[in-house]
Amino acid sequence: MKGLQTGRVVVVDNTPYEAVLIIRAFAKAGIASTYYTGAIEEMPESPLKGIRLVALDLHLDGDESQESKAMLGHALGVLKRLIDPNNGPLMILAWTKHPQLVEELKEKLPSACPAATPSFVVTFDKTSLIDAEGHVDIEKIISELNLAVQQWSPFDLMLYWEQLVHDSASETTRALSSLQPSDSFDHWKNSLRLTLKKMGEASTGKIVLDENGKSTTQNEVFLRGILETLHPLHNDRLEHFAGVMPHSLNKSTSFIQKESSPSIVSLEEINRMLILVPVSAGDKVVRPGNLYAANGWTPNSNRFPIKREVLIEELIEKNKQITEMENTNVQPVLVEITPMCDFAQKKNRQARLLAGLLVPVNTKKNLINKGRADFMNVLGGFSVKAEDRFGVPEGMYCLALTARYLCSQELRRLGRCQPVARIRHQGLVGVQAWFASHAARPGMLTLTT
C-alpha cells in the first residue's frame, strides 16, 4: 500500500494501554503513528524508512527483575529491526518508567543501532505523565513534544519542510480532483483518467497505436511523463505554503545564521544534488540533459565523436601545464540539449549533443579565461563518487562545456548508451539559453588603429 505510507512516527510499547495514551496525544496533535508491541512476529516485512520520531519503551518484555543491560539490549534490537539503514535523522522519545536508563541508551545507540543515528534522545517519564489512576495529561504530552522538537534545531526546519512537501502534494491532488465533474464517481474517475492522459501526452507526445491497437509509447515512459507534469504543479503549491513561516522556527533561524561554514566536501555534495539527477543503470531513455561520458560510449563502435585531445586544446590554456594525473582524470562528455518540447511533439530526428570536459576542480584554474571565452560554460564543482560511471577517480569535479563543438546522433543509436547522469532542469535551461545566445550573437564590425 505504497501510496498510504505517509506516517513518520512509530510507537513501541509492550503495554497496549500505555501505548494508547501517547497515541491519543499524537492523534490530538494530528500526528499519525504506527504501533508495535516489540514482538518479533509483528515487525514489518522490511525496515521502515523516513521515520522521524520513535516513542520507545525501554522495558519491552515485562520482566521487572531484568538488569539494565538486558532491557536496553531488547529495546535496541527492536529499534534495529524497525529502522532502515538509510532512514536519516531520528528523534527518540524514551517513553519509559526507567529514566535512569536514558543516558546509557545514548551511549549505546551509535554502535548498537547505527541506523538510528544521528539521533536526538529526549526523556518522556511515564510516571510524571500518567497518574495513579491511569489517566494521561494529553496537553502536557503535546507541550513536551513541541519543546522537544524545538530543541532539535536546526532540524526542526527540515521537519517543517517535509510536512510542507506532503501538504503541497495533497493540495495538488485536491486541486486536480476539484476540476473533474462530481455528479457520479464513475464520471469523476473517467474525467480524471482523461486529464492524466493529456498530461502524459503533453510530456511524452501523443499516443500512437500500432496495428494491434497497442500504444507505441513505453508504459514506464508515459507514466513518468505524467509525474513530471505534476512536479511544477506541486512546486507552485510548495512555494505558496512556504510563504508563511511559524514563529516557532525563529530559534532555528538564529541558530542557522551563526558564523560558521560547512566543509568544502559538504558544499560539493550539495552542488551535486543541485546540478545532477542520478540515472539508474539500465535506464537508457534519451532525454534532454542526459550526460554521456567517453568511457561508456557505445553507439558508434566505442568511437567518441570528438577526440579528447581536441577538447583539452579547446578548453585548457596552452601556456598552462597540468600534471599527468590531472590529465588522466579529465573525461570528455556530451550533453543532450534538445528542447523538451521537441521530444514531446516527436519533432527530434537526431539528438543534439554539446561537447565538454569533466575536469577536477584543482584543474579549473587551467581552463581558458572565461572573460574572453564566451564559448565556454562551467558548472560546478560537485562531487563524483566511486560508484558513479564517470570513468574518473572519486573527487571534486566541474563540467566545462564548449559551444563550438556540437554534434548529432541517431536517437536509436544513442538509446544504446548508458547516461552517467542528467543535468537538472534548472541547470539545463541555463545551458540551453547560453548556447542559444552564443549561436545567435550577431557580432559587430569595428576598425582598430
Explain what you see:
- The protein is α/β, with parallel strands linked by helices and 449 residues long.
- The chain has 3 domains: 2-152, Rossmann fold; 160-256, no CATH class; 264-440, no CATH class.
- 40% of the residues lie in helices and 17% in strands.
- The chain has helices at 16-28, 68-82, 102-112, 126-129, 138-151, 155-178, 185-204, 219-241, 250-256, 264-275, 308-315, 324-328, 340-344, 411-414, 425-440, and strands at 9-12, 34-36, 53-56, 90-96, 119-125, 276-277, 290-293, 331-336, 350-360, 376-384, 395-410, 421-423.
- The strands form 2 sheets. Strands 6-12-7-8-9-11-10 form a 7-stranded antiparallel beta sheet, sandwiched between helices.
- The longest helix is centred in the middle third of the chain and has 24 residues, at 155-178.
- It starts with 8 loop residues before the first strand and ends in a 9-residue tail after the last helix.
- The model has no long low-confidence stretch (mean pLDDT 85).
